[in-house]
Each structure stands twice: as structure tokens, then as C-alpha cells.
Amino acid sequence: MAKKETGLKATLSALGPKVPVKQTTVDVEKTEAATRVIHSEKKEKTYRQTVDLPEEVFKQWKIKLVMEGKTMQETLLSLVENYIKR
């Protein structure tokens, strides 16, 4: 029985030849300007909240959100605002 080669060299040689990666240039000023626009859209301070949900409830909620074209954030915000108003 032949000894199986192990290690990084054997693994890399089994992957095949190297494929050149397309080089792209990044316009740093354009990227920074876009980043400033994105981050300037938030006018008020926000807080992050983590909630544990049963898996089945989460799946059903996610399906309904997709069908309605809504996001979790806007749905939760609406629920909290309605709860506060009661």
C-alpha cells in the first residue's frame, strides 16, 4: 500500500494550476465619497438589539417578509412603534 502524501504542498498541487486573478483599480476618492453619502443618511442615533426566536417562528417570519417585500428592520420598528402607542 502506497503512502498517501499529506501536507500543504500535496494539497496545493492537487488543486490544479494557478489561475490569474483579474486586477482592478479602485478610485479611492469615489469610494470615500460614496461612503460619506451612505453614512450621512442616518439622521438619528440608533441602537442594536438581539432577540432569540424559535427557529420555526423565525423561518415563517422570514418567508412572510420576503413575500411582502419588507425587511426585518422596518417590520420590527413598526411593531415597536405600535406597541408604544397602545
UniProtKB/TrEMBL annotation:
GO terms for biological process: regulation of DNA-templated transcription. It comes from the Bacteria. This is ParG protein. It comes from Larkinella arboricola.
